[in-house]
Amino acid sequence: MSEKSRTEFHIRSADASDVPLILAFVSELAEYEHLSHLVTATESKLRDTLFGTHPGAEVVLAFEGSEPAGFAVFFHNFSTFLGVKGLWLEDLFVRPVFRGRGYGKALLLHVARVACERGCGRFEWSVLDWNEPSIRFYKSLGAQPLDDWTIFRVTGKALQELGAKR
Questions:
Q1: What is the rounded distance in angstroms from the CA atom of residue 77 to the CA atom of residue 87?
Q2: Cα–Cα dist 29/41, whole Å
Q3: Of 35, 138, 142, 163, which one is the catalytic site residue?
Q4: What whole-number percentage of the chain has pLDDT above 70?
Q5: Which structural domain, as residue segments, surrounds residue 118?
Q6: Could you tell me the CATH number of the domain that includes residue 26?
Q7: HSE on the CB side for 22, CA within 13 Å?
């Protein structure tokens, strides 16, 4: 980052008033990943799940001056093998106009510091197979792909049916 960008760039924790911006970032990320058809999040859902009684995740927002540049969404998980909590990075996104300025790295490092400060044993995330720029970026920071693991997911009707089984 240039000295000018460094002084204008900042990261802060999101609050409930940021929900419209968070939803905008979610929509932009989904568009980038060609997954817009999967977005069912609404401002109401996000307000309840991020800032309600039992928040499911945390959000940090990145700004260049007063312009929203990107965001990161993360939450705790747990490693039975390590016996300690970890941190899962659900989403990291920087708007295209702000890319190439080190903001994605700054967001990732910010969340990594949170993981260290909280005594986490792991900091993990997933990346789409086709997203070579991100894969190269993550590897350049020392991240290792877990090629021997496959993510499984159950959603929607299949989740409801599974949850109803006895």
A1: 6
A2: 13
A3: 138
A4: 96
A5: 3-164
A6: 3.40.630.30
A7: 27
